[in-house]
Amino acid sequence: MLLLLLLFLLSGPPLTVSLNQEGLYLQSLKNSLEDPDSALSAWNERDGAPCNWPGVTCDPISHSVHSLDLSNTNLAGPFPSLLCRLPNLAFISFSNNSINSTLPPDVSTCRSLQHLDLSQNLLTGELPHTLADLPSLRYLDLTGNNFSGDIPDTFGRFQELEVLSLVYNLLDGTIPAFLGNISTLKMLNLSYNPFVPGGIPPELGNLTNLEVMWLTDCNLVGEIPDSMGRLKKLTDLDLALNALHGPIPRSLTELSSVVQIELYNNSFSGGFPPGMSNLTALRLLDVSMNELTGTIPDELCRLPLKSLNLYENRLEGSLPESIANSTGLYELRLFRNGLTGELPKNLGRNSPLKWLDISSNQFSGELPAALCQKGALEELLMIYNQLSGPIPASLGECQSLTRVRLGFNRFSGEVPAGFWGLPRVSLLELVGNSFSGQIAKTIVGAANLSSLLLSTNKFSGPIPDEIGWLGNLVEFSGYNNSFSGSLPGSIVNLEQLGILDLHNNELSGELPSGVKSWKKLNELNLANNKFTGKIPEEIGRLSVLNYLDLSRNQFSGKIPLGLQNLKLNQLNLSYNRLSGELPPLFSKETYMNSFVGNPGLCGDLEGLCNGKEEAKSNGYVWLLRTIFVVAGLVFVVGVVWFYLKYRNFKMAKREIDKSKWTLMSFHKLGFSEYEILDCLDEDSVIGSGSSGKVYKVVLSSGEVVAVKKLWVGLRKECESVDVEKGHVRDNVFDAEVETLGKIRHKNIVKLWCCCTTRDCKLLVYEYMPNGSLGDLLHSSKGGLLDWPTRYRIALDAAEGLSYLHHDCVPPIVHRDVKSNNILLDGDFGARVADFGVAKVVDSAGKGPKSMSVIAGSCGYIAPEYAYTLRVNEKSDIYSFGVVVLELVTGKLPVDPEFGEKDLVKWVCTTLDQKGVDHVLDPKVDSCYKVDMCKVLNIGLLCTSPLPINRPSMRRVVKMLQEVCPENQSKMPKKDGKLSPYYYEDTSDHGSVA
Ligand SMILES: *[C@@H]1O[C@H](CO)[C@@H](O)[C@H](O)[C@H]1NC(C)=O
Ligand SMILES: *[C@@H]1O[C@H](CO)[C@@H](O)[C@H](O)[C@H]1NC(C)=O
Question: Where does the sequence pass through the membrane (predicted)?
């Protein structure tokens, strides 16, 4: 009886529904993966298990698991080969998870598998050669992983494969010919892999079932093989971003099914092959960025194309009128060619034209009136042509327009009223034409307008009050016109305004009140107008104002004191009627040109004030000055006398040539300048830069120092900016060097001393055994720098710069931050070198606040420098950002590989077009990817085009520390002091013997 009861209990409800074997396998799968989002939490339910579990599908009859779709579930861990024990599993998708480690060879035990999608995961290692053993595999997608090495030979043996997609991996062999054996293949997608340079195997022409061939950015070289013409089912052919050359082969005109051909960014040359009219299915053709010559064939333009991109070639002749018959054409980009003649009269009449870019050609004649007939036109880009006549009235009704660039043509006449007020236009550029008339009040309708560029035309009349309603306006430039009247009061409502440039007009009246609401104003240029009244005190509150030019007006009254608070790169108030005392900060030689031509203005600057006022009020000033002058003379005579005495004394002691040297030292020295002089021979040169040669000197004490010999009257390396010769001004140089010599910071190279003669200067630094970051990173030894080292270098350099910017009084702007100026000590600790000195040497008589000579090196120069030619802390931060990008990408700041771009632009476009994996340095272990991405972001912030958006160096240090908090604690302790630097007591300085 008891036994029966026990049996009854044991067989109770909890045990009635037990998991079948497949359910148990799936549960162990669940246990083998990390599941941070609990995507598999329902995989416990016993009812109907496992066929009703999320992601699981069973065969309706046998109830055996048939498909497993766990895409986008954030699962992490290695590929669970255990799955292959499910005998009928035909479909697996783990797309977009974090499946890591290598793909195990026993994946081939999934005998029923037809569809395997492991795209967008973290798989590494080689592709398993066993994949081809899966007898029924039709679909294989391994896109977006880190597979490396060759495509295995066995891949030629797939029996049923229709789709092979290996995009965005690190495959670095060649594209093998045996892929031509997979006769069932419909889609071959190998784009964006770093294959070694190789040709398109002619065998691929055997893939007669192929519909899609995507071989973008695969390092393809050579010509397109004629066998491609055999791909009669091909609809998409994409060979863009390779180095293919030769003509576009005639065989391509045999691709009777092809809808889309992308050959952009190769080196194809010659004209279009005859027979383009055979491509009756073609809708999209992109052959941009090649070297094509000849004309655009009429037979091509007769095809019912939707998109035609032929920009950046060398095409000539006119655009066939037949293009206007294509009823589907929505995109036509022909910019940067040598095209001539008039635009087809009916362009836009038959098709919903959306994007038209014919910039930088030699098109002439008038704008076709029908361009926007279908109401779809968004971008009308035609700068740099010879187009003439007025803007057709019909375009004034083109509500779809967003970007209009008609600059640098010969357009004339009045702009249609409706055109001013198009509601979606964000860029309206009419620069460099002969447009006349006024800005119509209808502009109030242009609610989306952010750039209004009207300069160098014949516009006249007042600037309408309605302009103040354009709340999104960021740039309004209308210089070189004949605008008159006063600025409308409403203009102060433009809170987004960054640039207001109306110089060379006939504007008059006072500046409106309330300009303090221009919180984002960066540049204000109202030069050469007829403005009167006071310069509003509020201007001193525009905290991001960087460029202020109010010269050649009739402003009167005092200079607002608040201007001293601004970080101005350009300040020009010359030729006005300003009066009163100059604010103290501006009483410097440097600012001379900013204030000339204001007869009433008084200050210590020569040539400013006629002195009348001063003499009247302060009679005794004259007396004081005389006393000072006399005292000064006595002092100078004394010094000269002392110097002569001293020289005689020295001459007696030393040989004549050496006595010309003077030494300034900042530390107790264990050596003399003569010892150094004796060691400067060409054998000991370790580097040579724009400012001089660097020698390594081993002293008798065994100590090693680096000696930099500056040469005088130097030129800078970068040709893109004007070159102005500097000359050494000894006293400024010495003062500056003294400041630098006092700096003590663990991340700044120590300057031991400085020796000077009339035509040569020696700077003696501590020696840094590992040389410069630039040399190391960009040499074959770049692989030595692993990520933790690179990260520490970035942080060290940031701390050094932060010290210069924030802790030095006055702040020091480095002006030439670059990887070659970041030196590495024996432990790869980084120190900033070479700051300030170049500045002093180059400054050509200008004070430190406004250096108008070239600063910086190619690839590191902040973009605003092009128009301001001035540098401040923000330009250092930009350059530092470039160094960070070098560390993350391992690439040079400028490299022929980038074409016209520099590293910053290359990183931005590559990120956009190909993703982050193509940006990160492949020499760095991919396990650091997350940290690298964080540091990359900091580099991008520092290189923001707008200086305001760049974080301060102090903030940069903080952000870098946050990237990797655990690394920080591993860093050397800062010898018990609160701050990592200290000033050495001046009495410690060594003295000249
Ligand atoms: C794979 O991911 C798991 C789970 O996140 C992790 O524990 C493991 O360390 C990773 N393995 C590798 C080789 O990255
Ligand atoms: C494949 O193409 C190559 C070259 O185009 C040719 O020599 C070869 O015979 C072809 N093989 C098959 C099986 O058709």
Answer: 622-644
